[in-house]
Amino acid sequence: MFLQGYSKGTVKSPKTQVSFSGDIIHVDFAIDPFKMFGSSLVSKALVYNNKVQTTIDSVGIVRGFIRFYRLLYSFNSFLEQLMTQKKVEDYMTKHSKLITFKPNDRIYLVIRKLIEKSISGAPVVNDDGELIGIISEKDCLKVLLEMVMHEMPGGIVERYMSHQVTTLEYNKSIIDAVEMFQKTNFRRFPVVKGSKLVGLISRRDVLMAIKDVGGLT
């Protein structure tokens, strides 16, 4: 957000060494209007990162300056509002296009499919379409260890899959998805409606939403 807000207080300009009491404009990037305007008529103070950048003149300059930042603030608010209106279901890969497995599938089938489709993992669902786990490349590596160390043949998916799954609800906003990706190292999340799997959303899907909102070409 460009404009962080207004406050009242007492600050000192590093340029003029003039103490000032009154309105303070807080922004989130450094700028020095003093160099542009050369004014020592103090009526507003510009603060960045809790440090005074300069004091600025009130005659025309302050009005235009505040108007400019209010415009940026409004535009930023518009983008935030737009992003909260974009939903996970708008950008996820639909269930019908996903590779999924059943808990009783043989693990060798999973390994073959992961290689053929060049994917790192897939959801596991029961006969009612409910998400019950995730099977990944890492999970499949357990097969090799069991074969070498215990001379055990590969079993079924349920034996190797991860049962604890982090999911996103289909009606969550793209902002919610961004926050989830920021908090974890996961590249994708299963999307659910209640307990049923309805899709999968990846980091790239979220980038597509940002591209759409930002009007990037």
Describe the structure.
By secondary structure, the chain is α+β, with helices and mostly antiparallel strands. It has two domains: 80 residues, no CATH class; 127 residues, CBS-domain (Roll). The protein contains eight helices and ten strands. It has a four-stranded mixed β-sheet with strand order 1-2-3-4. The chain has a four-stranded mixed β-sheet with strand order 5-10-9-8. Strands 6-7 form a two-stranded antiparallel sheet. It is elongated and about 75 Å long. The two termini are 23 Å apart.
Q: For the terminal residues, how far apart are their CA atoms?
A: 23 Å
What is the CATH T-level topology of the largest domain? CBS-domain
Largest sheet: 4 strands, mixed
Could you list the spans in which at least 5 consecutive residues all have pLDDT below 50?
27-44, 52-60
Please estimate the helix content: 25-40%
Number of strands: 10
Radius of gyration: 27 Å
At the first level of CATH, what is the class of the largest domain?
A: Alpha Beta
Instruction: Supply the helix-strand structural class.
Output: alpha+beta
**Number of domains as seen in the coordinates:** 2
Output the keywords.
single chain, 217 residues, alpha+beta, CBS-domain, four-stranded mixed beta sheet, 10 strands, 27% strand
